[in-house]
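Researcher: We're teaching a course module on how sequence relates to structure. For the next exercise, students receive a sequence and then see the predicted structure as tokens, so they can try to spot secondary structure elements on their own. Here is the exercise chain.
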Amino acid sequence: MIARQSFFNTITIGLAFLIGALNTIYFYPTYLGSELQGLVVALLAISNLIQPIISFGVQHSLIKFFSSCKNKIEKDSLFLFSMVFPIIIFLTIILPLSLFFIDEIIQIISAKNKIMGKYLFMILAISFSTAYFEVFYSWSRVNMKTIFGNFLKEFYPRALVFSLLIIYAFNIIDFDLFVLLLIGGYYFRLLLMIIYSLNIYRPSLTFTLPNNFKKVFRYSLIIFLSGSAASLILDIDKSMISNYLTIENVAYYSVAIFIAAVIEIPGRAMFQIVNPIVAKLINENDNKRLISLLKKTSNNLLLVSGLFFLIIILNLNDFYVWSSLNEYKSAIGVVYIVSLAKLFSISLGCLNNIITNSKYYVYVFWFSIISAFLAVFLNYYLIPLNGIIGAAIATLIVIVLINLGKLILIQIKYKANPYNFKTILSVLLIGIVYFLIITLKPETFIDNISDPNLIYNISFRSFLIAAIYVLLAYFFGLTKDFQEAVLRFRGKGINR
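Model: And here is the predicted structure for the students to work with:
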């Protein structure tokens, strides 16, 4: 089940990144320009800061407590609590505060860029729809259905932006209508997720609180606080760049972060289905299978993400030249720095899922708070000093320090860690292929047999990287899980 859904989720996320790349590298800069691109990115980033406050962590409570529910009544009460609570938060806290302090809020978000204050409504509207989308998506995930929800989460928003940019390019709509249609598209996505989730499992209307309400509420509160801090970490760099530097730098930085994020595709695909399985194993106290899952996810994700890392890093210069975004090349160092951080983070496997769903989940709060303070402090110091490179260094430092803390926690509490001898082999493999490609310089071979062409260089180099990487991985014995998964698929096909 993990292999099958991870496979389809990886394809979805890969296609999403492909469309996102077209948006970020071509359509945004060409038709909106770096200023409006930076504006949209900054507004969406702020929306992501508000979303955890509205959802209050209930989507994570669904995943943690669903497998411990003994009957339909308990499941229904848990789901309805998760469905009702965010709107209470929105109507009693978020909306009144936004209306009462509207002038002050507009003044803050438009301190450096006046145009941002005009679109405060976009921040609230998208954050509300995203919060409820996450709730219903979690409902499908606990029922072990992730493929369609992942499609809506990853592919749909990028396809929506792509469609709107095409329409905008033909001058059919202006920017204000672009924003309104973007909001409408997010709510249509929410409607699709609601219909799909209720089709999987339709709860009976029951207005009783969950039997373990105190535990659910406490967990939601901790995860809410942690999620708010985590969202701050994800988007504080873009927000602070918009304050300290020009809004164009937000666009340059966002393109670099987008490129580096490709490394996370395998992990994002796998964790959609792994998270509810981790919660189930923890609720059943099956530590043996849990630790086995931790090591397997670490080994496989490091192996696959390592290939993504090499293809990105070794093609980076040609890619920036080929994309003809010369002003964006100032952020090329950001890709190198953030890619290393993401590769280390992905090597942890499902470690974060274990902490979040275990009785040690309170540590998530402290890790998030420390991360938030570190991120703010380091960005405050490094952005004025080193610009967007400083923001990338801040991200690297935060990710490394916090993940080291999580490794120590799991080692102490579970007497385990995600690493083994295969980890050393995978790191060695990445290093060998990197230096081998640097030494071989395959682009010179292409130039000798045809006119220099950057797309040929990128394609040939990527093929060579993949071929050498896969052959060495097979030689090192790192592909056994993949081979077993292929045999299972083939066996199922034969049986049919």
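Model: If you want an answer key for the exercise: The mean pLDDT is 81. The chain has two domains: 2-419, 420-488.
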